[in-house]
Amino acid sequence: QVQLLExxxxxxQAGGSLRLSCVASGGTPFNMGWFRRPPGKExxxxxxxxxxxxxxxxxxxxxxxxxxxxxxxNTISLEMKKLEPEDTAVYYCTAATRFYSxxxxxxxxxAWGQGTQVTVSS
Length: 122
Hints:
Blueprint: E1 3-7, E2 10-13, E3 18-25, E4 32-37, E5 44-49, E6 56-58, E7 66-72, E8 75-80, E9 89-95, E10 111-112, E11 116-121
Parallel strand pairs: 2-11
Antiparallel strand pairs: 1-3, 3-8, 4-5, 4-9, 5-6, 7-8, 9-10, 9-11
């Protein structure tokens, strides 16, 4: 059973940067990525990346500001730049553990971390 652990959240001013990391244990996932849950809202897709890093799909809201990397088979990171108050959310690492899929096929993601809080002040 794959377990995921996120780190790197915090409080930053608008326009600032943060780097999130996620480490998987108990197996090597297929795709990995990030979702987020803004306060009072539903979880939403942010970005996904394939095992080899060759397939990446960003949501429109973060494209051009966030960069995901597959740093190792079991590790991803998310460089977040030009953060906006709208980026405030709990960020969840996710992984597809059962089968291969494209990074954008959100239903494939079936493992979840506990989340790390990102707060962007205006």
